[in-house]
Amino acid sequence: MIKMLCIYDVYIVIDIEQMVITNAYLKEPFNGMQIRSLDDLSYFLEIFFDKGSCPFAREFEHRGKCYFFMSHTFNNIVILTIQNIDKIKNILLDKKEILFDGLTKCYLKKELELFLEQALENFVRYKKEKFSILMFDIDFFKKVNDTYGHLAGDFILKELASLVKSSLRKSDICGRFGGEEFLILLPNTNVSGALKLATKLNKLVKEHAFIYNETNISITISLGITSVSFSDSYHSIVQRCDETLYKAKENGRDRIEYT
Predict the structure, then answer these.
(1) How far apart are CA 96 and CA 99, in angstroms?
(2) Beta strands 10-15 and 65-74: pairing type?
(3) Active-site positions?
(4) Where are the domains of the chain?
(5) 96-258: CATH, from 3.40.50.280, 3.40.50.2300, 2.60.120.820, 3.30.70.270
(6) Which residue among 2, 134, 157, 240 is least packed, with the fewest CB closer than 10 Å?
(7) 45, 52 Cβ separation under 8 angstroms
(8) Percent of the chain beyond pLDDT 70?
(9) 215-217 and 181-187: which strand pairing?
(10) pTM of the complete model
(11) Cα-only R_g, the chain
């Protein structure tokens, strides 16, 4: 336990059934704060974030250093950790092939599944914040590859991913779900909020100049949106969102559908 704690700047264990903090370990520069109750914890989180209930993964700055906040759920236990990014960059950056798609630098599908399952558990079991997911893919992407070549297709995917990620919040999680299909997890977002983002992305992509070998390749995207419900599982929410994306493509592409 001592060795494990040494890698964290903050390590807090919460018993969800008893609603008590069973362990709180804080190092400099956080050790001046006392965390003995959930009220103490809520105040602690509010200092660094907009509200006491935080997304399960987020970066923040404190005293000129960058930290990474994570929430982990195991049965009836929630573990909150804060770690200086300098200490974990060898894991998250030097070994980014473990977490991220090499071409688009978006999360791999298996990582998306973990994030989504965690968000579902927080929402369904612990009545945490509502969230939405947004799926999109490139219209007639095969035609791009057939006309301009697969290297052009790779360029489009990479450029598109960069364009989309530049429009997201730090708490949003974007991953490559399939060949030209992407999924975005939107914490603390209802369908209305996700629709605003989808409208922005649809317009942004349509107006962007994708220039490959001095050729401007025009592309559009179709998007599907759904929001979580208490009856959802990982498969049900993904399937529902996938069906809305299929509906967008069936209804003419370059459009948004939601449910």
Answers:
(1) 5
(2) unpaired
(3) 180
(4) 2-92, 96-258
(5) 3.30.70.270
(6) 2
(7) yes
(8) 90
(9) unpaired
(10) 0.67
(11) 20
